Amino acid sequence: MIDRKDVEYVAWLARLDLSEEEKERFTRQLDNVLEHAQKIKSLDTSEVEPTPHVLPLKNVMRDDEIKPSLSQEEALSNAPHREGAYFVVPRIL
Amino acid sequence: MEISYNMKAWQLRGMLERREVSALEVLDSVLKRVEETEPTVKAYLTLTRDDARATAEATDLALSRDGAIGRIAGIPMAVKDVLCTRGIKTTCGSLILENYIPVYDATVVNSLRREGLTMVGKANMDEFAMGSSTENSAFGPTRNPWDPDRVPGGSSGGSAAAVAAGEAVWALGSDTGGSIRQPASFCGLVGLKPTYGLISRYGLVAFASSLDQIGPITRDVRDCALLLSLIAGHDPKDSTSLAADIPDYEKACLGDIKGLRVGVPVELMQEGLTPGVKEAMDNCLHLFSELGADVREASLPNLDYALSAYYIIAPAEASSNLARFDGVRYGLRAGDGEDIMEMYGKTRRQGFGAEVKRRIMLGTYALSAGYYEAYYGQAQKVRTLIVEDFRRAFDEFDVLVSPTSPTPAFRLGEKLEDPLAMYLSDVCTIPVNLAGIPAISIPCGLEDGLPIGLQIMGKVLAEAQLLRVATTMEEALDFKATPKLEGEMPL
Amino acid sequence: MSEYEVVIGLEIHAELKTKSKMFCGCDASFGGEPNSKTDPVCLGLPGVLPVLNRKAIELAIRLAIALDSEIAPNSIFHRKNYFYPDMPKNYQISQYDLPLAIGGHLDIDVGGEPFRVGITRVHMEEDTGKSVHASESGRIHGAEYSLEDFNRAGVPLVEIVTEPDVRTAEQARIFMQELRSILQHLEVSDGKMEEGSLRCDANISLRPRGESEMGVKTEVKNMNSFRALSRALEYEIVRQTDLLESGGKVVQETRHWDADGNVTTPMRTKEYAFDYRYFPEPDLVPLEPSLEFLDEVRTALPELPQERRRRFQEDYSLPAYDVGLLTASKAMGDFFEETVRAGAPPKAASNWMMGELSAYMNAMNLEIEDIIVSPRQLAKMIELVETGVISGKIAKSVFEEMLRGGKDPDEIVKEQGITQISDSQELERLIAEVIKENPESVDDYRGGKEKALGFMVGQVMRKTGGRANPQLVNEMLKRSLEGE
Ligand SMILES: [Mg+2]
Ligand SMILES: [Zn+2]
């Protein structure tokens, strides 16, 4: 059902480098789990609305008020790589 | 007065108030237990002895001046390492957050700090709460104090093991598909998964946002009620937080269950139950009847699909929630110096363990172009059917009961290589998360010396009722066993 | 006329003018020290949750009402998943198949002809942070590494998608100008294209005239001024026309407008097409604006540019040309009205604003918001002219001084001693001098040549350094010439 190409595509979407061994193993394991998940396809849900929320809530909003921000030091305190008050990332393109 | 390592929080609280013990004495007894048993159990990822000592000292000072103390002051607690603690490492059991130090406290941590939180440490867990055995921790497994060859359950296994071993009096866990109730069951404790929205999720590192809830793991129902009353309530920082009136949960424990309509979903009593679990269940149902409850079979046919729906929905949400771990703003970074794609790929490859990768892959697949409707869309509709099944059942019954887990604690490594088998161990707990309802697990027997849990499920916001039913059953069951784990038993 | 028809659809993002960000309390204003306007929520730290800013919804609804768009009784937020370092969570909270508002239109005036552009949808989403590229050009290409600043991350945006109704670059530009004016009048957005608070991407394709099927489109990005928008679209129309006419094919791609090179260039395409894996945001609950809330917003809706134009024409009796310029931006119209409110006659205020003020703004590349002269000061200066304290000519230099230094006009006049000479004895003396010095002109005038009078007035003015009231000089000169 799911093949190695699917696994490679999905790994790319999820930005996961996988080893050859992982690709092979995940193909097998995901196939297993999806096989089990096939069960839900047999249910007729044509008249059923999806449930993204089980909550009875709507229109939850806050007032437009400025609250204190973090200090720059706090904001950057866990940065793996910084330059001044910026986070540094490797070449984007 | 002598402090024993399996005293309840409410007992210790009374002793503190009567000045029979000091907060430091309580803490020291727990820390001594940590010294003795932690090498075997490995319940903690980070110990916060100094932090705990400081609050214990402050509590004693307040007591000596006859001042007011917080409602949990001086009672050592373990906090699952999925809850953000300001200035204290929060790893989620993952290499990707190995050295991560939050700059803010989770709302629940904040609430408990105001009540005198004495935190012993951050408890081990399956990486990002994905697992049912705590074997998926990047920092090694936690062992079950009842039998160190067995898992404590998961993902809140560290929290449960710490309480069972006496390394904490109580603990906070989180439950996405059974992660509080199943380890509570495996460790002979009480564990509550509250109604979705009752407790703020702000500061709980998200696994599956529409399913996650924080809850207590305690030695009895009364402690559970006490802890719940301190963490429940509306939080303006969480849009999915309910603005419900919070009853006095401790008082709610009192009463009886005469006339209570108890339903037993046949779908949760099917294959896979061990003889001991079956026997314990029969005994529970018998007790319910004896106590005046009306016990009948219930049918929620769509529960048969709950596991499948869950293993689409939870990974899908997780794949998105875990995208932020990318090596840019915090956490591990690998492959720097290359381009950003390489950095992302390597960081996430090195930072995440196998189960997390598996679920990210599964969830990404279920949401990807061409598969959304067949998987995620369909799973959300199945979720609706499950919600409706519960609604109908609760027209007929006040509570539903089942085993918390089809089996007692399994052996370490037993299910590690078979994800599906591991997933199947959550079959009784998962429907509750999909429906957003509350459920509690209490110990109800032993099989081969290992605890078994009874799960009691209620309507949305029926925590008070659940606590009353649980207290009544707790008294009737009179479960007194404790783990035989002794001080010096390194493996 | 080309045998191809141009089809353009626009996708506009405008930053909403809220005080705080969309999902957290951080200051949403532009700029600031890098990463100084961030908190756990907009940094996407583990464990955080979004809470929607009510004002952002209100502003987006204002716009939807102005565009005659139908507000959805129920809308929800989705997560749009893709990795990019300026996006802290690696998903953007946006709206997808249940947006805030659907449909609508905007009527514009293209060379005196009305033209209607359909609106497909209006939805809300959060902005990203900003990447600064460490390369000589500051551009992403060739950069060794990039720096991330999350001050802008989480600022609320409204996205407007138009129907593919636009046919020319000019229509696109006028549409954007009118939309900007609406955004400003409604106080929904600053609409500053240069600062990026108003951005526009265009989908553009060609098809043989009479054909109803769409051609292959390109998406043009990075047009950050009205001028860039016109030029980029003109370029792209020519490029696609040339391609098709020479038998080539348009490739579906995203192209980047290079304002220096005056070309669009393809952005590097990814190995796979984008697969955003949209799904409902579980951390937010549905939005169901009540009828009362919608009524409240509708009732409190600020004046739209169309209405303001009508009012300017009626209340101030200004010509259509003046009205057009004065309502091009909200701030311009506000400045005008405040000047009038401070006592200036409308036409005089309009003349000064369209003349000297606009010239100065153009020369200095300034917006009306940057002008340090207040409407009250302009009104005061106009009053000095009207009451004859200074001449119109002097006023120009006084105004220039005001624009540069921000001083009050009477202060400048006092300091420089340039009060108009209305002392008639002094003028009488100068007029006598001029008459004596220019006998020919005197003869000419007496011989019926009216023009000679103008020359002599000029001479008097020169002697006063322009400080005389020319009308007064004119009268006095006439009197002396005719009286003798
Ligand atoms: Mg957008
Ligand atoms: Zn913020």
TrEMBL record, chain A:
Q: Which Gene3D superfamilies match?
A: Glu-tRNAGln amidotransferase C subunit, N-terminal domain
EC number(s) per entry: 6.3.5.-
The question of whether Ribonucleoprotein is a record keyword is answered with no
Which molecular function GO terms apply here?
Answer: asparaginyl-tRNA synthase (glutamine-hydrolyzing) activity; ATP binding; glutaminyl-tRNA synthase (glutamine-hydrolyzing) activity; transferase activity
Task: Please list the reactions this protein catalyses.
Answer: L-aspartyl-tRNA(Asn) + L-glutamine + ATP + H2O = L-asparaginyl-tRNA(Asn) + L-glutamate + ADP + phosphate + 2 H(+); L-glutamyl-tRNA(Gln) + L-glutamine + ATP + H2O = L-glutaminyl-tRNA(Gln) + L-glutamate + ADP + phosphate + H(+)
Instruction: Give one Pfam family, short name only.
Output: GatC
* GO BP terms in the entry: glutaminyl-tRNAGln biosynthesis via transamidation; regulation of translational fidelity; translation
Which principal EC class is assigned to this enzyme? Answer: ligase
Q: Which UniProt keywords apply?
A: ATP-binding, Ligase, Nucleotide-binding, Protein biosynthesis, Transferase
Entries under InterPro entries matching the protein: Asp/Glu-ADT_sf_sub_c, GatC
State what this protein does: Allows the formation of correctly charged Asn-tRNA(Asn) or Gln-tRNA(Gln) through the transamidation of misacylated Asp-tRNA(Asn) or Glu-tRNA(Gln) in organisms which lack either or both of asparaginyl-tRNA or glutaminyl-tRNA synthetases. The reaction takes place in the presence of glutamine and ATP through an activated phospho-Asp-tRNA(Asn) or phospho-Glu-tRNA(Gln).
Q: How does it assemble?
A: Heterotrimer of A, B and C subunits.
Family listed: Belongs to the GatC family.
- For this entry, the protein name equals Aspartyl/glutamyl-tRNA(Asn/Gln) amidotransferase subunit C
Organism (species)? Candidatus Solincola sediminis
Recite the lineage of the species: Bacteria, Bacillati, Actinomycetota, Candidatus Geothermincolia, Candidatus Geothermincolales
Q: Which gene encodes it?
A: gatC
From TrEMBL, chain B:
Q: Quickly give the catalysed reaction.
A: L-glutamyl-tRNA(Gln) + L-glutamine + ATP + H2O = L-glutaminyl-tRNA(Gln) + L-glutamate + ADP + phosphate + H(+)
Q: Does the keyword ATP-binding apply?
A: yes
User: A Gene Ontology molecular-function term?
Assistant: transferase activity
- Record domain Amidase: where: 25-467
Any one Pfam family match given in the protein's UniProt record, by short name: Amidase
Which E.C. number(s) belong to this protein? 6.3.5.7
Could you list this entry's UniProt keywords, alphabetically sorted: ATP-binding, Ligase, Nucleotide-binding, Protein biosynthesis, Transferase
Give GO terms for biological process. Answer: translation
GO CC terms on record?
glutamyl-tRNA(Gln) amidotransferase complex
Q: Hey, which family's this protein in?
A: Belongs to the amidase family. GatA subfamily.
Give the protein's recorded name.
Answer: Glutamyl-tRNA(Gln) amidotransferase subunit A
Task: Look up and give the organism this protein is from.
Answer: Candidatus Solincola sediminis
Phylogenetic classification of the source organism:
Bacteria, Bacillati, Actinomycetota, Candidatus Geothermincolia, Candidatus Geothermincolales
Automatic annotation (TrEMBL), chain C:
Q: Does the keyword NAD apply?
A: no
Tell me what reaction this enzyme catalyses: L-glutamyl-tRNA(Gln) + L-glutamine + ATP + H2O = L-glutaminyl-tRNA(Gln) + L-glutamate + ADP + phosphate + H(+); L-aspartyl-tRNA(Asn) + L-glutamine + ATP + H2O = L-asparaginyl-tRNA(Asn) + L-glutamate + ADP + phosphate + 2 H(+)
Q: Which residues cross the membrane?
A: none
Q: Which SUPFAM superfamilies match?
A: GatB/YqeY motif, Glutamine synthetase/guanido kinase
Q: Which top-level enzyme class is recorded in the Swiss-Prot or TrEMBL entry?
A: ligase
User: An example of a Gene Ontology BP annotation on this entry?
Assistant: translation
GO MF terms listed in the record are:
asparaginyl-tRNA synthase (glutamine-hydrolyzing) activity; ATP binding; glutaminyl-tRNA synthase (glutamine-hydrolyzing) activity; transferase activity
Keyword Lipid biosynthesis (UniProt): no
The record's SMART domains line, in alphabetical order, gives: GatB_Yqey (SM00845)
UniProt cross-references to Gene3D superfamilies, sorted A to Z:
1.10.10.410, GatB domain, N-terminal subdomain
Q: Which residues form the Asn/Gln amidotransferase domain?
A: 334-481
Do you know which HAMAP family this protein is assigned to?
GatB (MF_00121)
Q: Which family does it belong to?
A: Belongs to the GatB/GatE family. GatB subfamily.
Q: What does this protein do?
A: Allows the formation of correctly charged Asn-tRNA(Asn) or Gln-tRNA(Gln) through the transamidation of misacylated Asp-tRNA(Asn) or Glu-tRNA(Gln) in organisms which lack either or both of asparaginyl-tRNA or glutaminyl-tRNA synthetases. The reaction takes place in the presence of glutamine and ATP through an activated phospho-Asp-tRNA(Asn) or phospho-Glu-tRNA(Gln).
Sorted alphabetically, which NCBIfam families does this protein's record hold?
gatB, PRK05477.1-2, PRK05477.1-4
Q: State how it assembles.
A: Heterotrimer of A, B and C subunits.
Protein name per its UniProtKB record:
Aspartyl/glutamyl-tRNA(Asn/Gln) amidotransferase subunit B
Species, as recorded:
Candidatus Solincola sediminis
Q: Which gene encodes it?
A: gatB
